[in-house]
Amino acid sequence: MTKPSSAIETLIDMMARLPGLGPRSARRAVLYLVRKRGQLLGPLAAAMAEVAQTARECVSCGNITTGELCPICTDPRRQNGMLCVVEDVGDLWAMERTGAFVGRYHVLGGTLSALDDVGPEELGLPRLERRITDENVTEVILALNTTMDGLTTAHYVADLLEGRVRITSLAQGVPVGGELDYLDDGTIGAALKARRDL
Amino acid sequence: MTKPSSAIETLIDMMARLPGLGPRSARRAVLYLVRKRGQLLGPLAAAMAEVAQTARECVSCGNITTGELCPICTDPRRQNGMLCVVEDVGDLWAMERTGAFVGRYHVLGGTLSALDDVGPEELGLPRLERRITDENVTEVILALNTTMDGLTTAHYVADLLEGRVRITSLAQGVPVGGELDYLDDGTIGAALKARRDL
Ligand SMILES: [Zn+2]
Ligand SMILES: [Zn+2]
Questions:
Q1: Mean pLDDT of the region A68-74
Q2: Do the Cβ atoms of A87 and A122 come closer than 8 Å?
Q3: Which SUPFAM superfamilies does this chain map to (chains A, B) (predicted)?
Q4: For a tag on chain A, would you pick the N or C end, based on fewer CB atoms within 10 A?
């Protein structure tokens, strides 16, 4: 067996590390890219290089962005005083796709977990408390996944902020054990509209 | 709804065009890449740029390579006089993974098809005929997919080369309607060993 050109093999190995792709689908994707190397592979390489150089976390909300503050934090049309707390950026994107939320976000970047040794500081909860004062927040919507760790985290945040802001969570409608990023936009939108006080 | 940063959105749109990825898996892949932007996204961008700039078709066999001739055509350990004819580079890679074939390849880049208006010239069949003379080929193994177009093409090539070389095809063992790239290595290897004269 003769090895393929090392540059192509390296590319296949890297692509196989992406979620949802294995060695076989990575080979198919690379073959497709090589066939469309003018149209797609070159532009894709450039887009990746640009994102690799410019992508960073929004210093305010934790969203992925290319500036210091993300487009949501700087958008003057977004409603002030309302923060939606999510586990990760994928969940923020899922909320945004519904178009149902007009406030701003706070991305925890995970959940409280005794097992993984993640504490309030790692989740930026002191930063959340500062935002509530600085941005005159009156409502915090907890849009965490309904997993055990998500529920634990929701209770912790609710206790932490009790008496300082209105605290709500997404309504029943999010299936127990379900992850936000896998839900259809309608379900998320309906759950947001029917959100209840904790 | 506030649009995500355009560089990230562009990247998601491009990734969604890869086979096996849709919008949802493209978002997950990009999110994963952004999280690993130092470790994976930067190197992946560089690997893609290199392949985009250097990848080309081997002038002899049609394999994808980074030089004028591919590593298989230039490998002195490969057996002379034996050519394996495949539809595309994915099939060549599938054959190579079995480690069962020691000769060289000829990639047609498709099949004869009345519908798509693909003729012998488009498939490089005159080039195949020249190779048979120039490289003193004594056996041509037809390893085409067992689809209607693949079978039509195999018959055409067999007629074209009749009396000039031994012409064999992969043995029964390749399921009818099956595509080489989806088979396990053992099946392909066994079919190659039990190849029969046409
Ligand atoms: Zn932000
Ligand atoms: Zn070659």
A1: 93
A2: no
A3: Recombination protein RecR
A4: N
Interacting residues of B60 by C-beta distance below 8 A, sequence separation 6+: B69, B70, B73, B131
Q: What is the CA radius of gyration of chain A?
A: 20
B91-124: buried (b, 16+ CB within 10 Å) or exposed (e) per residue?
bbbbbbbbebbebbbbbbbebbeeeeebebeebb
DSSP state of B3: P
Which residues have beta carbons under 5 A from ligand 2 (an ion)?
B 58, 60-61, 63, 70, 73
Burial A103-120 (b: 16+ CB within 10 A, else e): bbbbbbbebbeeeeebeb
Choose among B14, B107, B97, B15: nearest CA to B59: B107
Instruction: Test B15 with A44 for CB contact under 8 angstroms.
Output: yes
H/E stretch holding A191 reads: helix A185-193
User: Is the Cβ pair A51, B37 closer than 8 Å?
Assistant: yes
Q: Give the pair of three-digit tokens for residue A101.
A: 């939320």
Task: Kindly state the average pLDDT of the residues A59-63.
Answer: 94
Q: Which domains does chain A have, with CATH numbers?
A: 6-54 (1.10.8.420), 64-169 (3.40.1360.10)
Distance CA A87, CA B92 (A): 45
Q: Which pTM does this prediction carry?
A: 0.76
User: Which residues, in sequence order, are CB contacts of B130 under 8 Å at separation 6+?
Assistant: none
pLDDT above 90 for A122: no
pLDDT digits (tens, 9 = 90+) for B162-194: 999 999 988 756 676 667 777 777 777 777 777
